[in-house]
Design a protein that fits this description.
Blueprint lengths: L1 E5 L5 H8 L3 E6 L9 E3 L12 E4 L12 H5 L3 H15 L5 E6 L4 H4 L7 E3 L12 E6 L26 H6 L3 H15 L2
Parallel strand pairs: 1-2, 1-4, 2-3, 4-5
Antiparallel strand pairs: 5-7, 6-7
């Protein structure tokens, strides 16, 4: 399969699909943290290049429930509209199999984006952490947990403020990346 991993700088999802024998490319304005097939630029430049599947991680800064207070305080309504438009471009891309991940969204974002299909947690995939992540799916089944961890922490929520905090919070957990590559390519292939 030909898999586009949109808005990913870590390379984790891209590399999971590559390990499973697929052609995968990540695309982000940031360079990839790991060596691999990466387009350093706007994903919209390559979105029409004949992909079979896209896993997308659009920026959540204006969409996430955690930042809703800033919309009014800083008059960020225009940025919210642009974020909704970008999210929907990804969701409605001319690609048969699409998964978009984002945190739980606030009511203003939900007014312009359809409801998610699934909520997953890292502790469902072998990590002892909590981080509710919503998945919007097109042509793909819900992810099945691979290794449930009973005791979990909220380490990511407790990270101290700093310039790299957003990066640490935005990396896909390896267990989730592996589940996507394992489960969704098996579902898609005959």
């Amino acid at each position: 399969m030909k898999v586009l991993v949109a808005c990913e700088f870590s390379g984790r999802v891209r590399d999971a699909f590559t390990r499973n024998g697929h052609y995968a490319m990540s695309a982000d304005f940031l360079p990839s943290e790991t060596p691999g097939n990466h387009y350093n630029g706007n994903v919209l430049d390559v979105i029409e290049d004949g992909w079979d599947m896209m896993i997308a991680h659009p920026p959540c800064t204006r969409l996430a429930n955690s930042g809703v207070r800033w919309l009014d305080e800083r008059n960020l309504w225009g940025e919210l509209e642009k974020a909704i438009e970008f999210f929907n471009i990804l969701l409605n891309a001319n690609i048969p199999l699409v998964a978009i991940e984002n945190p739980i969204q606030h009511k203003y974002a939900r007014s312009g984006i359809r409801k998610y299909d699934q909520v997953i947690q890292p502790w469902m995939f072998g990590h002892s952490e909590t981080k509710a992540t919503c998945l919007w799916l097109k042509g793909l089944p819900k992810l099945k947990p691979t290794m449930v961890i009973k005791d979990h922490t909220d380490r990511l929520h407790r990270l101290p403020p700093g310039p790299e905090r957003w990066k640490e919070r935005s990396r896909t957990f390896q267990g989730i990346a592996d589940a996507m590559a394992d489960q969704w390519t098996k579902e898609a292939l005959p």
